[in-house]
Amino acid sequence: MGDISKDIQMQFSNNKMKALLNIMYTASWISSRENAFFKPFGISPQQFNVLRILRGAGKPMAVQSIKERMIDRNPNTTRLMDKMCAKNLIERIACESDRRVVHIEITQKGLSLLQKIDDNKPLDWLKNLSDKEAALLSDLLDKIR
């Protein structure tokens, strides 16, 4: 099991500072593993998040609605969508009632990719936590925000 004090070779002045740095360090650790996992699929964690949102919605969504649901609210969502369109994972649909609004729809290729990811996604990043500990952790993180 990890120990933040040993991992970054630092002593902490108080437990709140230790907890804050541990959250940041752990987020980076998870992000690194996510990037490595998604690389063979040719997408980023943010692109996966968009595909997951669209699949869950079950219908085309406005770009702004997608942005509001994203975990990592990338300020350059347009560029992210451009890359996904180029890969034929999503398609843009013009809104008939308002030219300024663009809806995004997941393609069959996007759905197929999600199925491959679902079949291979490791769920063991929290394997050292019991279900009760995971619930407590989630509640504590909610409390911070």
From TrEMBL:
GO biological processes: response to stress
InterPro entries: HTH_MarR-typ, MarR/SlyA-like, WH-like_DNA-bd_sf, WH_DNA-bd_sf
Signal among keywords: no
Keywords: DNA-binding
GO molecular function, one term: DNA-binding transcription factor activity
HTH marR-type domain: residues covered: 14-145
Keyword DNA-binding tagged: yes
Any Pfam family the entry gives: MarR
Protein name per UniProt: DNA-binding transcriptional regulator, MarR family
Lineage: Bacteria, Pseudomonadati, Bacteroidota, Flavobacteriia, Flavobacteriales
